[in-house]
Design goal:
CATH superfamily of the largest domain in chain C: P-loop containing nucleotide triphosphate hydrolases
Structural class of chain A: mainly alpha
Number of strands of chain C: 20
CATH architecture of the largest domain in chain A: Orthogonal Bundle
Oligomer: heterotrimer
Number of helices of chain A: 12
Number of strands of chain A: 0
Structural class of chain C: alpha+beta
Helix content of chain A: over 70%
CATH topology of the largest domain in chain A: MetI-like fold
Radius of gyration of chain A: 24 Å
Mean pLDDT of chain A: 80
Number of domains of chain C: 2
Distance between the termini of chain A: 11 Å
Strand content of chain C: 35-45%
Largest sheet of chain C: 6 strands, mixed
Order of helices and strands of chain A: HHHHHHHHHHHH
Largest sheet of chain A: none
Number of helices of chain C: 8
Number of domains of chain A: 2
CATH class of the largest domain in chain A: Mainly Alpha
Low-confidence stretches of chain C: 1-14
Largest interface: A-B, 92 and 92 residues
Radius of gyration of chain C: 25 Å
Low-confidence stretches of chain A: 1-12, 272-285
Mean pLDDT of chain C: 89
Chain lengths: ~280, ~280, ~375
């Protein structure tokens, strides 16, 4: 049921202050991004107002920048590997939380979900100490392990939510019809979890590409993209950074819109069913 | 319904991973915090509370911790002030555009943190957009120094980053409120303003608590924004920890401070969970 | 002797039977986009009357209620309360209160605080609030649960709290949106009686929305039957039952037999069963009649026919036990199937002799999609 129905004046007056507030907040949220994009075309370089000499120069420089592309390649490898690890351990974790009882379950749940809210450096530091004691050299591998650990919680939460929506009866029916647990898992459970898993994968990939706090401590010789940018920022701002940031923004935008559409599609199918049922009960009309 | 084997197969790998990569590191950190470092940069297993004493006795450490908490508190308040009306508008007034607006709010969330923090640097610098704009329209004659390399810049940037984090749980809580409660309140004679304070706000409190917790905990542990924009007066506790693991080589002390942060975060989470439960009525 | 078969009743007993008019709905129509939900409804509600708006889902009954409450606004038409235009006011200014279908009790407030809500919002002094709330809780027998939260009390109890919460504000009109639909059958019957006596006690006009025709008959002073956004008939329960205006009304309320008749020179002949005929003062042509199952008697085969009554011998098809009565389905010569209600206990043979009086037959207007 819609609260503000068709904007009828008889019901609720729209508040002007509220709308103004909303516009200000959106402006605040998008200002830096707008500036970044705008200035990536600025001939005069970083800062200064107003921007002059609009040019593609910085993008050209960017394309010829070797180290940046190396770091991009590294980040992609890491993100992909982290995605695989997070899903491989995160999906069973969600299943375990949903279906199994075992000693230490509460501690396990908290441990798994902790990296989600804990400041990244704590996760990074603790893993650094682990690798130090184990004598492991820092490299892309250690970063992969770090990202994987930190992002398992993303996979677990998404899949767990998906499991709540899953009708237990479907799996029971499958077992009843003669399929064993393994078959039921692949034929019934996983297809139903398709949307949450894809959504989680997308999210994990995007988060890994942008990850700094954990990576900071576990970096070896090879840089990931954020750390490469970070290094340059320490040495001084170059307008190239604006260009690479704009590109990152565009990719993130595409990824997140896609993720959202996926989610909405999953929910809408289900919400539509409920709405129809309610309407049929004679609620609205 | 699920066999023993199924449950074991499903539980064992994640449990193993969590033990090796989550539990053991924390335990290690715990141990490190009681050790110390020698002049030759070797780790001594001294097993004492020296590091903790240092944390609370040496000015720069506990003062930075307090400053970090104060910055985090300000970020939390601003994020709530910005985020709550936004969530309220989307949930109750946005109608058909609700979906689109929601996407617009979460998009900045996933655009690289580094990118956004860097963008503020461009804006706030003495040669930056803000200053040159102000001078261009003759509002100021000289660049405003406090804009960058100050706690102000850190609070501003972190508010920018964490407002969507505060928004999300508040929006979820507001969406959960059955609309017939709002109708019932109107039916009984309450104006929209009265309805907000008597019905909508109380029922949204769990969301507010969750949002505040996210904003506070995440800002407290932030080290990028202070490093990029904080300057000497904007240093936060995480920066100290980072340097202790870097140039100022003292892992045990760093571990001790990290552990304190961990404990602080965990107790805040615990507190916030209790509060949420107290204020949830379904 | 010519017998007069009752002619089709008029749609409305336009004025309410009680003293004065409280609410006047004038040509109210409502569409949601292209979907027309209400088509020009006009009716009046009298002071202290118990009016039920009855209809299937999709009939528009809930929408009409929401327009009166103020949660929807009409696409056209007006709603007047006394000398004031009600539809121009927001819901929180109307002297109308609603009992919602799922009660809509505030989960974060106790029973007492829920009931006190309207009074507190209006700024009434605490002493007055306390006494009025106590009185209202007494009336619905929920005093013992005053300090409980809604999640801790049963559905029936929640419903009573919702009632108290609405009535404590002394509205001029109380709207009830299918309040009993979530209750089980026995509790429902009990609440019907309680609601009716409560209404008598407080003397406020009640507008009750339901899809359950039995409920409507039991509780109402008048029933307004809606179908696809139009008002089929508005009349007292007895009138609507014995003088249905259309085939739809006749079938919606209670059971009936619809008979397609051919009238020629004052004599009706039932299309499917030529042996069924009786004299009627109705103009020639095709006419539709309604005959209630209880108006048909099963008579002993040996008994001679009563003059003036129509008699037919039929074949038993089906028998259904309904407690005090039985509903039997029989086939008449020519193929016409009739439903007959007869007291239980009397043995029914394979051949059933039936009798009915032409006075029980009511002419009805055909309803599109129903014959």
């Amino acid at each position: 049921m819609e609260f503000l129905v068709s904007g009828d004046s008889a019901t609720i007056p729209r508040s002007r202050w509220l709308m103004a507030h909303v516009l200000i907040v959106f402006a605040f949220l998008y200002l830096p991004i707008a500036v970044l994009i705008l200035y990536s075309f600025n001939g005069e370089g970083v800062g200064g107002f107003p921007p002059r000499h609009l040019t593609f120069d910085w993008y050209r420089t960017l394309f010829q920048d070797g180290p940046i592309w190396d770091s991009v390649f590294n980040s992609l490898q890491v993100a992909f590997a982290a995605m695989v690890i997070s899903l491989t351990f995160g999906v069973p974790a969600a299943l375990a939380l949903d279906r199994a009882q075992f000693p230490g379950k509460v501690l396990f749940r908290r441990l798994v979900l902790l990296p989600l809210i804990l400041p990244g450096i704590i996760t990074g530091l603790s893993l650094l100490m682990l690798f130090n004691v184990a004598g492991t050299k820092l490299s892309l591998l250690t970063i992969v392990l770090g990202h994987g650990t930190a992002l398992i919680s993303v996979a677990t939460t998404e899949v767990f939510a998906g499991l709540q929506k899953l009708d237990r009866a479907q799996e029971e029916a499958s077992l009843d019809l003669g399929a064993n647990y393994w078959q039921t898992f692949w034929r019934i459970t996983v297809p139903n979890l398709k949307l949450p898993i894809i959504g989680a994968a997308l999210l994990i990939f995007t988060l890994s590409m942008d990850e700094i706090a954990v990576s900071f401590f576990l970096i070896g010789r090879d840089n990931t993209l954020p750390l490469e940018i970070w290094g340059r920022l320490r040495r001084g701002i170059t307008p190239e950074i604006n260009a690479v940031s704009t590109i990152i923004f565009v990719f993130s935008l595409v990824a997140i819109v896609f993720w959202y559409r996926l989610r909405v599609r999953g929910e809408t199918r289900e919400a539509a069913g409920t709405e129809i049922a309610e309407a049929a009960e004679g609620g609205l009309v | 319904m699920f066999s023993r084997a199924y449950k074991t197969i499903v539980t064992a790998p994640p449990l193993l991973w969590a033990t090796v990569f989550l539990l053991v590191p924390y335990v290690l950190m715990f141990c490190y915090s009681f050790w110390s470092v020698s002049a030759a940069q070797a780790i001594i297993h001294s097993w004492d509370l020296a590091n903790y004493k240092k944390l609370f006795q040496v000015d720069v450490y506990w003062q930075t911790l307090l400053r970090s908490m104060w910055i985090a508190a300000r970020v939390t308040i601003f994020s709530l002030v910005l985020g709550y009306p936004l969530a309220y508008f989307l949930s109750f007034y946005a109608g058909k555009r609700k979906d689109l607006l929601y996407q617009l709010v979460i998009i900045p969330l996933w655009v690289s943190y580094l990118v956004r923090a860097y963008a503020w640097k461009t804006i706030l610098g003495s040669d930056g957009v803000m200053n040159t704009l102000l001078q261009y329209v003759h509002l100021t004659k000289h660049p405003l120094e406090f804009l960058l390399y100050s706690p102000f810049a850190v609070v501003l940037t972190l508010t920018h980053i964490y407002t969507p984090f505060a928004f999300l749980p508040i929006y979820a809580a507001l969406e959960h409120i059955p609309r017939n409660l709002v109708e019932a309140s109107h039916d009984l004679g309450a104006t929209p303003v009265q309805t907000f304070w008597r019905v909508i706000f109380p029922l949204s409190i769990p969301g507010v608590v969750a949002g505040a917790t996210f904003a506070f905990v995440l800002s407290l542990g932030d080290f990028l924004a202070p490093l990029l924009l904080g300057g000497p007066s904007g240093i936060m506790i995480s920066n100290i920890v980072v340097s202790l693991f870097g140039a100022a080589y003292n892992w045990p002390l760093g571990a001790a401070i990290s552990l304190c942060m961990l404990l602080l975060v965990v107790s805040l989470l615990f507190l916030s969970e209790r509060l949420e439960k107290k204020w949830s009525f379904s | 002797m010519a017998f007069i078969t009752s002619s089709a009743a008029s749609i409305t007993t336009a004025e309410s039977p009680t003293k004065s008019t409280l609410l006047s709905i004038r040509n109210v129509a409502k569409s949601f986009g292209k979907n027309v939900v209400l088509r020009e409804i006009s009716l009046e509600i009298g002071e202290g009357e118990f009016l039920t708006i009855l209809g299937e889902s999709g009939s528009g009954k809930t929408t009409l209620l929401r327009i009166i409450a103020g949660f929807e606004s009409a696409s056209s038409g007006e709603v007047w309360m006394g000398e004031e235009r009600l539809d121009r006011q927001p819901p929180y200014r109307r002297r109308v209160n609603t009992v919602f279908q799922h009660y809509a009790l505030f989960p974060h407030l106790t029973v007492e605080q829920n009931v006190a809500y309207g009074l507190r919002v209006a700024g009434r002094p605490e002493a007055e609030v306390a006494s009025r709330v106590a009185e209202a809780l007494e009336k619905v027998r929920m005093t013992a649960h005053a300090k409980s939260k809604p999640s801790k009390i049963s559905g029936g109890q929640q419903q009573r709290v919702a009632l108290a919460r609405a009535l404590v504000n002394r509205p001029r009109l109380l709207l009830l949106d299918e309040p009993l639909s979530a209750l089980d059958a026995n509790l429902r019957r009990q609440m019907q009686v309680e609601l009716k006596s409560l209404q008598r006690e407080v003397g406020i006009a009640f507008v009750f929305v339901t899809h359950d025709q039995e409920e409507a008959m039991v509780m109402s002073d008048r029933i307004a039957l809606l179908r696809s956004g139009e008002l089929e008939q508005i009349a007292t329960p007895r009138e609507i039952y014995s003088q249905p205006a259309t085939a739809y009304v006749a079938q919606f309320i209670g059971h009936t037999n619809l008979l397609q008749g051919d009238v020629r020179q004052g004599v009706v002949r039932v299309a499917q069963s030529e042996s069924l005929s009786w004299p009627a003062q109705v103009p020639d042509g095709q006419v539709l009649f309604s005959l209630r199952p209880e108006s048909i008697q099963v008579v002993a085969a040996a008994r001679p026919g009563t003059p003036g009554r129509v008699r037919v011998r039929s074949r038993l098809l089906q028998q259904a036990f309904h407690g005090a009565t039985e509903l039997i389905r029989v086939e008449c010569p020519g193929g016409l199937v009739l439903t007959v209600r007869t007291p239980s206990g009397a043995g029914i043979q394979k051949e059933v002799d039936l009798e009915f009086s032409p006075a029980s037959v009511v002419q009805v207007r055909p309803s599109p999609g129903r014959n």
